[in-house]
Design brief:
Strand content: 5-15%
CATH superfamily of the largest domain: HAD superfamily/HAD-like
Radius of gyration: 23 Å
CATH topology of the largest domain: Rossmann fold
Structural class: alpha/beta
Length: 334
């Protein structure tokens, strides 16, 4: 089993020493482009100074290892205003990259008296966000418009969750009016679209570097855990099994288990009932406004992960909730 992350490396700057390049490099080798291996803001979680993280530069890893070793073992440099961190760079002095290396606190500091269980969203929370909203939403809107539904009912900027939930309200009315066959045909067609984009995301999903370490730490601390996702059952179970996450969860709920998805609270209320806990004793971690709104409606404590879907939509939480930038930050919540 993967050990928990001991330090985090963040790319803080990429530069080009063009003056040095122009003065000393062959003309055919001159380039003003910065290093392409890293992007500013990239984060890497390190469990051992002997294990280079995936997609890291071998050259930079060799340069940083002494600093990683120092930080992991508690060295504090007096010239920084924050303990347990350092700034380091790779020795490609033509196109240097600068990194912040910071020690992570030991797992885990969630207040056991306050929370009795932890629930997670899936896409964008446990794995990176891969659902193609920009393609799926126009396709869904076209189907609904073709069915004769006035699109204004979905608002100026329809979301995939609103399209799903409001359409269920409309088809319920159709069924009550005796048009059950029309309702079933439309829902079957829409379900096919949602399922197809689920399968598309499944091809690319990868867990975050700290996903398994955090799940292991929570399990070792005795927390019941669950997944409550807006994705379909097949892909949810597939990705949890593929990356060996499934054994950590006491329950898994998907879009197929409810008639309305988050931000509707149905799935969270179902999870709360299965866990036999009062809602305020449950922490729900999600990466979208839909997650936060669903948790609040269910009476749970929301934890907003500024990652995943929120980076795609540009929507961040302004609510008075816990806010974290990576799953490892759960260990700071008390």
């Amino acid at each position: 089993m993967t050990d928990h992350a001991k330090c985090k490396i963040t790319v803080i700057k990429k530069t080009v020493n063009q003056e040095i390049i122009d003065a000393y490099m062959k003309e055919s080798m001159r380039s003003s482009r910065p290093c392409s291996t890293f992007q500013q803001g990239d984060e890497f979680f390190i469990s051992s100074e002997f294990c280079m993280p995936k997609n890291f530069c071998h050259w930079a890893w060799a340069d940083l290892r002494k600093d990683i070793l120092a930080i992991i073992n508690g060295v504090c440099y007096p010239w920084y205003d924050k303990k347990g961190m350092t700034i380091a760079g790779c020795t490609d002095w033509f196109r240097p990259v600068y990194f912040k290396i910071e020690k992570l606190p030991p797992l885990i500091a969630i207040d056991k008296k306050k929370f009795g269980a932890v629930l997670f969203d899936l896409d964008g929370t446990l794995v990176d966000f891969q659902w193609q909203l920009d393609k799926a939403i126009p396709e869904i809107c076209a189907i609904l418009s073709e069915a004769g539904i006035a699109m204004a009912i979905y608002g100026d900027v329809p979301t995939y969750a609103a399209l799903f939930n409001i359409t269920r309200d409309i088809t319920d009315q159709w069924i009550s009016a005796g048009a059950a066959q029309n309702a079933e045909k439309l829902l079957e067609r829409l379900d096919g679209v949602y399922d197809r984009y689920d399968r598309d995301a499944l091809k690319r999903w990868q867990p975050y570097p700290d996903t398994l370490p955090v799940l292991k730490a929570l399990a070792d601390a005795g927390y019941p855990m669950g997944v409550v996702s807006n994705c379909g059952r097949d892909v949810v179970n597939t990705v949890l099994n593929r990356f060996e996450m499934r054994p950590y969860f006491d329950l898994v709920l998907s879009r197929d288990d409810v008639s309305r998805i988050k931000p509707h609270p149905d799935s969270l209320l179902m999870a709360q009932k299965q866990m036999s806990l009062s809602p305020e004793k449950i922490l729900f971690v999600g990466d979208s406004i839909n997650d936060i709104n669903a948790a609040e409606k269910a009476g749970m404590q929301p934890c907003f992960l500024f990652c995943g879907e929120s980076l795609v939509t540009g929507q961040s939480s302004s609510h008075d909730v816990f806010q974290i930038s990576c799953l490892s930050d759960l260990m700071k919540i008390a």
